[in-house]
């Protein structure tokens, strides 16, 4: 166990950490903070939800001179929501040092952003496209930046962003400190990264698997056309506090969302075609528990830290293993437990194996639950609610009515009726989700597939209520338009 005090963290930040409830440093924090405070360039790789934000945030804040109202720290992140979240965490950490971070991202009014920039933030957390826009307009000057961070570095150095990142880094003085962080770092990307840095120290927190141990990983082999009903059954059985359902295309996200709403679930969708206002309001409703199921493209796969996400469903298995790691990492954060359930069509089994090889973890097979299982699951939720009410012992006011009821009816009938009223009976509104082609191993970023060794430690287990296999012909037709989600979100 390492305390932040032992790492040489100064008292204003110690005070903030105490307020945030951080008692000890996580392994990535313990290793990174001293090295980065000495001025080293660092490539930090650690599993999802293990505190990488504070690992780069604390040394960055330590270096900042609050009296100098110039941008001294720059953090670049791939999505708008992540930029906002990272700026919030930095502001919490910097609260007692009079250091301020500002999130700058696409989809927000330029004028409002320019006004906020005039206030002189010390740290800017930006998405690449909008940052470049400001640099061109000279509304952001990064020539005083001492520390630059690429959060989700492998994503930022991937095809979609690499040119923007090069342009951004060109604007920062050579003698800068550069910190790169991610839960995944494919070798070819690490090679690009080292070229942008000065003798970087690589910190890779030792973990047997790339995924977090406290996420139970499952897969369900299911033909495309049964996916939606299977999802419904899972949601009914597991009754997640908050669940994220990832799908491959924006169109499918819309269709799944509408389908879930039609069946009576509190679901909302998020993807890159929505206005920023809508994206924010959906995310806020989800964080506040006013929406239980967030249906998303990979725009929500990286970095987002939402407590209470107990389940992640891959309605469609992602193309690359890294995406799988980040998606399921939206649950099981900061030591909490989580479940990840991936739907795999019969033709995608080979792809599943290739993901397992890279992540060095195994997904256990689940049989698709039946409608009956789902009904039982829902009744179980009602039972749990009744037991909770019994435990609270605050029932005196109901005794008289209960007695009257029992005079006219037998107890089983009364309880069954109460359970019926408390059970969410699913509407059987027909829902059609347009199908997509299955993912094949070849398509899935080919060269990455064979680069890591196999792992044979786990057998494939079973779980669930022993449902029947809703087997059938694979309905995975082709979606001619493609309509694939572009990686990341360039503004
Ligand atoms: N030392 C700590 N003690 C307790 N909680 C912490 C500590 N460090 C970070 N956390 C909390 O853990 C959660 C996850 O942290 P963070 O978002 O930085 O993870 P991450 O490693 O960046 O994950 P990802 O790879 O998904 O981006 C956050 O809610 C954060 O506030
Ligand atoms: Mg992060």
The number of helical segments is: 17
CATH architecture annotation of the largest domain: 3-Layer(aba) Sandwich
User: What is the distance, rounded to the nearest whole angstrom, between the alpha carbons of the first and last residues?
Assistant: 40 Å
Structural class: alpha/beta
* Number of individual domains: 2
Strands of the biggest beta sheet: in what spatial order? 3-4-2-5-6-1-7
Looking at the structure, what is the overall shape? globular
What is Rg?
25 Å
Largest beta sheet, briefly? Answer: 7 strands, parallel
CATH domain topology of the largest domain: Rossmann fold
User: CATH homologous superfamily of the largest domain - what is it?
Assistant: P-loop containing nucleotide triphosphate hydrolases
EC number: 3.6.4.13
Domain DEAD-box RNA helicase Q: 2-30
Domain Helicase C-terminal: 214-375
Pfam families: DEAD, Helicase_C
